[in-house]
């Protein structure tokens, strides 16, 4: 038998019970029997009787009553986390009136049986408390890069896997299509495989695209999704033809992680955005990419731009906001600006002291953040 944190018996508590540490461990409930048990609780004649009933039910779950936890019965099984059960039970027990407690019980039953989704993701809003790992704050301080599987931090300038993962989970459903116009080392594609999203990635440098293709072969594909990386200029490739080859006419999410102008020079190719001769030229090139990808995105769906600012000539260049404007001007609604801590590159780390000295002497601040701009395509 596996173990899961015990559900505490709360029968005679009257104050709000302390919140159990969230656990995403899954319990497979036999839906019909569990709902019957909730129905019986609803028939309670007093708050005390109801609380005692809740305690008894929790105790049955705790000792894994086979009648309630009957594995995976086809059509009669629902997987819930321990955290979700604890929360829902605690809310019922904390209610001060019978009417309120019954209202919570009713909601509890609905949340077990009726999924509620918005139009762009499969997050079950009736059980939103189970999604602890989905970020909703506009400040992200991510301490550790996910280096599992095919992910590697070797490609200079790749983003942390958490970025495409969070975005795909918030803004796509399983089986939907994502376009990454600056695919690099394939971080979005690897995450797409893990999450069951199809991803087409475009990368200018053929040798980088080839290496990413090889890397992808080492990543398991449990959902059998399409993850294709192609070499090409994102401002110019024929996305329609690429998608048509997969029987698709549109995508449901666009990821844009362009070079941050010339901060990292990726190649000598003049079509490479890191070779733009000025900020203005960079913005024009970026505009061309957006013009090429935007028609592919379904209305009401999301485009995510990841970019940072830069210094030049003793001046802070707000490249992020300037690029943000390029997207907004093309019929997109700005939904969020996320500020994310910036991982120091190994090169920068070794010059830490020097950068600090320069900052103090020159009256500037050392970059520690980048932006994730989230846009919605207007209908
Ligand atoms: C910031 S990196 C993206 C890294 C990627 N997110 C990853 O995790 O590996 C930008 C990438 O855009 C590519 N690139 C530059 N100009 C391009 C263009 N016009 N079309 C397609 N890719 C381009 C660069 O070669 C580089 O690999």
Report on this structure.
By secondary structure, the protein is α/β, with parallel strands linked by helices. The protein folds into two domains: 26-130, no CATH class; 139-377, 3-Layer(aba) Sandwich (Rossmann fold). The protein has twelve helices and twelve strands. It has an eight-stranded mixed sheet with strand order 3-11-12-8-7-4-5-6, sandwiched between helices. A two-stranded antiparallel sheet has the order 1-2. Strands 9-10 form a two-stranded antiparallel sheet. α1 (31-42) runs antiparallel to α2 (47-62), α1 packs antiparallel against α4 (98-113) and α9 (279-293) runs parallel beside α10. It is elongated. 34% of the residues are buried. Residues 1-19 have low confidence and may be disordered. S-adenosylmethionine (SAM) binds at residues 155, 157-159, 182, 184-185, 187, 202-205, 208, 233-235, 257-259, 266-267, 271-273.
Observed structural traits:
379 residues; alpha/beta; Rossmann fold; 2 domains; eight-stranded mixed β-sheet; two-stranded antiparallel ribbon; 12 strands; 18% strand; elongated; disordered N terminus; binds S-adenosylmethionine
């Amino acid at each position: 038998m596996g173990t899961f944190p015990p559900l505490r018996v709360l029968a005679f508590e009257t104050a709000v019970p302390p919140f159990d540490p969230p656990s995403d461990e899954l319990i497979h409930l036999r839906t019909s029997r569990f709902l019957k048990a909730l129905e019986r609780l609803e028939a309670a004649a007093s708050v005390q009787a109801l609380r005692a009933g809740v305690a008894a039910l929790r105790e049955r779950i705790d000792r894994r009553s086979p009648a309630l936890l009957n594995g995976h019965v086809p059509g009669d099984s629902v997987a819930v986390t321990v955290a979700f059960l604890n929360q829902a039970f605690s809310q019922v027990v904390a209610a001060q009136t019978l009417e309120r407690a019954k209202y919570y019980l009713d909601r509890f039953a609905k949340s077990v049986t009726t999924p509620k989704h918005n139009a762009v993701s499969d997050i079950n809003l009736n059980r939103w408390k189970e999604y602890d790992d989905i970020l909703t704050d506009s400040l992200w301080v991510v301490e550790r890069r996910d280096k599992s599987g095919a992910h590697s931090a070797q490609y200079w300038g790749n983003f942390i896997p958490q970025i495409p993962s969070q975005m795909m989970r918030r803004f796509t459903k399983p089986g939907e299509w994502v376009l990454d116009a600056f695919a690099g080392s394939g971080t979005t594609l690897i995450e797409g495989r893990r999450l069951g999203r199809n991803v087409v990635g475009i990368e200018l440098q053929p040798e980088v695209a080839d290496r990413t293709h090889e890397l992808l072969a080492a990543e398991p594909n449990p959902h059998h999704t399409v993850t294709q990386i192609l070499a090409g200029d994102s401002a110019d490739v024929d996305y329609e033809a690429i998608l048509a080859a997969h029987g698709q006419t549109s995508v449901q999410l666009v990821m844009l992680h362009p070079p941050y102008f010339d901060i990292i020079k990726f190649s000598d190719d003049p079509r490479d955005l890191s070779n733009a001769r000025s900020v203005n030229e960079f913005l024009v090139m970026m505009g061309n990419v957006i013009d090429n990808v935007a028609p592919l995105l379904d209305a009401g769906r999301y485009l995510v731009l990841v970019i940072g600012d830069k210094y030049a000539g003793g001046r802070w260049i707000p490249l992020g906001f300037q690029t943000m404007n390029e997207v907004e001007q093309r019929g997109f609604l700005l939904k969020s600006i996320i500020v994310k801590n910036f991982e120091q590159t190994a090169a920068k780390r070794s010059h830490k002291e020097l950068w600090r000295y320069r900052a103090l002497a020159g009256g500037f601040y050392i970059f520690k953040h980048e932006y994730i701009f989230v846009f919605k395509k207007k209908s």
